[in-house]
Amino acid sequence: MMARSKVRMPEKDSPAESDLEAISEGEETKCADDIWDYYEAHKDEAISLEEYARKRGIKI
Question: Where do the domains of the chain lie?
């Protein structure tokens, strides 16, 4: 038996340029700054995928 696939069409058209302007440039910059600050505060906690897998006994 072959699986059937269905294509769902979007309920509305693709977003227009005006739809993408929901956030002002100032808000966008503040958000990016917050993300960068978080990264800087926690970057020493990051580990590689290989180290993560090794610590949990996952073979990759």
Answer: 24-55
